[in-house]
Design brief:
Structural class: alpha/beta
Helix content: 25-40%
Strand order of the largest sheet: 2-1-3-4-5
Number of strands: 5
Shape: globular
Radius of gyration: 14 Å
Number of domains: 1
Strand content: 15-25%
CATH superfamily: Dehydroquinase, class II
Distance between the termini: 12 Å
Number of helices: 5
Amino acid sequence: MKIQIINGPNLNLLGKREPDVYGSLPFESHLENLKNKYPYIIFDYYQSNIEGEIINKIHEAGPSCNGIILNAGGYTHTSIAIYDAIKAINTPVIEVHISNVYAREAFRHQSLIANACKGVISGFGIESYRLAIEAIMGM
């Protein structure tokens, strides 16, 4: 099984940015934990602050993996282009968020990509990624 994890803008700052919201460890540390917990899964990890690069990665990963875990960051609330990229592939995409977006600013309450995704996991901290892995394994 192969899972692509894609993190969007500002998620390269995990561990530094608002640790009370996002935690104090960089994502790469969490990724190592996931690799140890699921040694039979091949994880590809990609992070970009650029919308077009995220779209290109969705197109590239779609045919070659069993599922995509996408934390589109701020693009979740603004990107019709990422929505279209998800709709263009057959691979299931799980939208994840570390924080509970519904307990935050009102503009974060709307996801433009959720309708294209198989499911949405929000508010469980970094465990949101593990929950997405479990969901993909169950498909």
